[in-house]
DNA sequence: AAGCCGGGGGT
DNA sequence: ACCCCAGGCTT
């Protein structure tokens, strides 16, 4: 794009953003910490999903100091249902570093802010431009889609290397006068107008500067290669109830999928007799095999795998000492206070 | 560079 | 069924 057009493109984008932007909670603040929270929640997550979580989170943890030393289980409960739970662990680690190393002030340069846990190239640029007004690129999926069309770039955006092309493009195009509105304008345009399928080109404020609109095919961009196939795993989930009306639960491992979240007893599907024997032995209980009541069967899709779950309610006739520290019989009130992944919430919700 | 890490909504 | 979403970390 030639220089005169760059200036006009900036102006058109920023003017449109300032007039048409949605009223979102995190647009009422310029506190770097609060912008940070919003950006982490928005990673791979839609605006409408984030809004209630953001409001609750900021109300409870309005400052870096208030978040820094909150127990992890409480944070996971606040994050419950949002997904990608390592985000909140990393956020807290980063925030704690800000409190302890930077005196509570979020760094205002890319080198230092990028050292914080959970802050990658995008989040760094977003905080720097939105909270500090720095002319830094913030390239996410929206930006790559919009600019692939405006500049008619057909490089494969699934390749990490391709992102550098767009970072350089933004660095060249960005409005020094209002980096915040420019970066958010690109993303807002991607969310409202320059959508993945059927972009609303006739309503686009930068249509005049869009190469794909004039010389190419906006709908065919961006190019993205790799598509992943999910693996199928079948589980039987046993909701085991003791004489007190408490339920046997276990906490997942500290790392990996759904780390540190709680679940009912879950075993890979097998012959029913084998499953029950395995459960009885491992958790030192004797189950009433005469009365196994199906609760619900469903599929739960993750980004890289698919769970097929069948769940059952069964009474423990006898219970012994639980050998593992991460297992316990919990009351209804306790269960509703611990963080559980959505599949377990679904089973719990169908229990009564 | 590729795999891992959730969940929901749109088409 | 498939795609994508205000991505980052680990290997």
Automatic annotation (TrEMBL):
Which gene underlies this protein? Answer: mutY
What is the uppermost EC class here? hydrolase
| Catalyzed reactions per annotation | Hydrolyzes free adenine bases from 7,8-dihydro-8-oxoguanine:adenine mismatched double-stranded DNA, leaving an apurinic site
Check the record and name the PROSITE patterns matching this protein: ENDONUCLEASE_III_1
Which family does the record assign? Answer: Belongs to the Nth/MutY family.
Described function? Adenine glycosylase active on G-A mispairs.
Q: Which PANTHER family match?
A: ADENINE DNA GLYCOSYLASE
Key word Nucleotide-binding present in the record?
no
- NCBIfam families membership: mutY
**UniProt cross-references to SMART domains, sorted A to Z:** ENDO3c, FES
Q: What is this protein called?
A: Adenine DNA glycosylase
Give the UniProt keywords, A-Z.
Answer: 4Fe-4S, DNA damage, DNA repair, Glycosidase, Hydrolase, Iron, Iron-sulfur, Metal-binding
Where would I find the HhH-GPD domain in this sequence? 41-192
Note on how the cofactor is bound:
Binds 1 [4Fe-4S] cluster.
Which InterPro entries does the entry mention?
A: A/G_AdeGlyc_MutY (IPR005760), DNA_glycosylase (IPR011257), Endonuclease3_FeS-loop_motif (IPR003651), Endouclease-III_FeS-bd_BS (IPR004035), HhH-GPD_domain (IPR003265), HhH_base_excis_C (IPR023170), HhH_motif (IPR000445), MIG/MutY (IPR044298)
* Lineage, uppermost ranks: Bacteria, Bacillati, Bacillota, Bacilli, Bacillales
């Amino acid at each position: 794009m030639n220089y005169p057009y760059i200036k006009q493109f900036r102006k058109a984008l920023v003017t449109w953003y300032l007039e048409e932007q949605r009223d979102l909670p995190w647009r009422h603040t310029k506190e770097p910490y609060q912008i940070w929270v919003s950006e982490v929640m928005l990673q791979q997550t839609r605006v409408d999903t984030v809004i209630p979580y953001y409001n609750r989170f900021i109300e409870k943890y309005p400052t870096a100091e208030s978040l820094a030393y909150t127990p992890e289980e409480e944070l996971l409960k606040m994050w419950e249902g949002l997904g990608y739970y390592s985000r909140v662990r990393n956020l807290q680690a980063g925030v704690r570093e800000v409190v302890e190393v930077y005196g509570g002030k979020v760094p205002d340069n890319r080198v230092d802010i990028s050292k914080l846990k959970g802050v990658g190239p995008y989040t760094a640029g977003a905080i720097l431009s939105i909270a500090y007004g720095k002319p830094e690129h913030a390239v996410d999926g929206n930006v790559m889609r919009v600019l692939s069309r405006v500049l008619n770039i057909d490089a494969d955006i699934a390749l990490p290397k391709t992102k550098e092309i767009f970072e350089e493009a933004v660095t060249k195009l960005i409005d020094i006068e209002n980096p915040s509105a420019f970066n958010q304008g690109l993303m807002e345009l991607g969310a409202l107008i320059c959508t993945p399928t059927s972009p609303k080109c006739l309503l686009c404020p930068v249509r005049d500067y869009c190469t794909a609109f004039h010389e190419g095919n906006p709908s065919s961009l961006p190019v993205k290669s790799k598509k992943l196939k999910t693996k199928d795993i079948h589980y039987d989930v046993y909701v085991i109830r003791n004489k007190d009306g408490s339920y046997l639960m276990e906490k997942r491992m500290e790392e990996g999928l759904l780390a540190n979240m709680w679940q009912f007893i879950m075993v890979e599907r097998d012959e029913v007799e084998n499953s029950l024997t395995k459960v009885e032995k491992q958790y030192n209980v004797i189950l009433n095999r005469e009365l196994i009541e199906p609760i619900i069967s469903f599929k739960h899709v993750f980004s890289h795998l698919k769970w097929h779950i069948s769940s059952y309610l069964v009474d423990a006739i006898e219970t012994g000492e639980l050998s593992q520290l991460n297992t316990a019989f919990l009351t209804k009130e306790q269960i509703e206070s611990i963080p559980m992944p959505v599949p377990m919430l679904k089973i719990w919700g169908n229990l009564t």
